[in-house]
Amino acid sequence: MTAATLTIDLDALIANWRALDGKSGSAVETAAVVKADAYGLNALRVSRALYHAGVRSFFVAVASEGAAIRQALGADADIYVFSGFMAGDAQALRDHNLIPLINSPAQFRRLLAELPGQGFGLQLNTGMNRLGMEATDFATHKNDILARGPKLVISHLACADQPGHAQNRAQLDTFKAMTDGLNLRRSLAATGGILLGSEYHFDLCRPGVGLYGGLPFAEAAPVVRLSIPVVQTREVDTGAAVGYSQGFVARRPTRIATLAAGYADGLIRAMGGAKARVYWHDTPCPVVGRVSMDLLTVDITDLDQEPEYLEILNQRQTVDMLAQAAGTIGYEILTSLGERYIRHYVGQN
Ligand SMILES: *Cc1c(COP(=O)(O)O)cnc(C)c1O
């Protein structure tokens, strides 16, 4: 092996989509969020696999991402764009038949001026205060918007990973107050919202992280495995220091393996100092010293053989376990996965 290999299990991805789809009623559509290159796993491969499994609605952050996945999907797939209709988007939206989720009166005016015939949706602000049209603006423009037949109206929950948080109910109530009786297709739930129960499901759910094996979908099957080749190993004496700034000092005769991946590959510096582990089969070995740009150093003294590679993500150490060790969240671990990894796809297509 010459480079670290990221193995992506498309069967596990599809199993996670089916499991999330099974949590809502049969009349509720389950879409897929494939923004940020499908959370680092390759939006083309992921979208195509999900399309073959029956997914017909996809969500991306910006129009260029939608343009990139259109070629992987049939013309019958709906591709929604969270950032809506930004300046300069008209050509991409039209040429790739993307559905902007209009976030403001200015975006609605741009739609009317530049692409009056384009299918569109609407994103409402129900309390997250990040994206979406304000209630007052919606009230002002409601008749014009409704007259043009939005395909979907969405909002997004800020605290859905905390089931007991009062903001969930507050946003649900606000969403209903803004949209009840309008006879529009509605969507509120991402992964966390699906798990909050049927009141949150409306007509369409749009999971992202749960598809890729991450929390808050605790039952998810792991989708990624990351194997990093060992470049060399060495014995160091008690008292010898390893890595930049003498970040690790051996307290016993220690065997150090140097691995070919570092913070430039998304294995962030916060994983150093024995916080994160890598695995040889079932045996954990601590990452010792500082994480370098292209290299990790690992204490393999307790292994009874010379490993050719070690795994930092696998069935034993999920993205969330690694995230916890590094003081971050699974989403950030996934979306930081490096460009240098060989991405290897197993399972369906
Ligand atoms: C990212 C995102 C999602 C998917 O969220 P997950 O927590 O990854 O399931 C859904 N809706 C919006 C608006 C998003 O920004």
What does this structure look like?
This protein is an alpha/beta fold and 349 residues long. The protein contains eleven helices and 19 strands. It has helices at 10-21, 35-40, 43-52, 63-70, 90-95, 105-114, 135-147, 166-179, 191-196, 319-325, 330-335; strands at 5-9, 29-30, 32-33, 57-60, 78-81, 99-102, 121-123, 153-154, 186-187, 204-205, 224-236, 241-242, 248-249, 254-259, 277-280, 283-286, 296-299, 309-313, 342-346. A hairpin with a 5-residue loop joins strand 12 (241-242) and strand 13. The protein starts with a strand and ends with a strand. The site of pyridoxal-5'-phosphate has 12 residues, from helix 9. Pyridoxal-5'-phosphate (PLP) is lined by residues 33, 35, 82, 156, 190-192, 206-210.
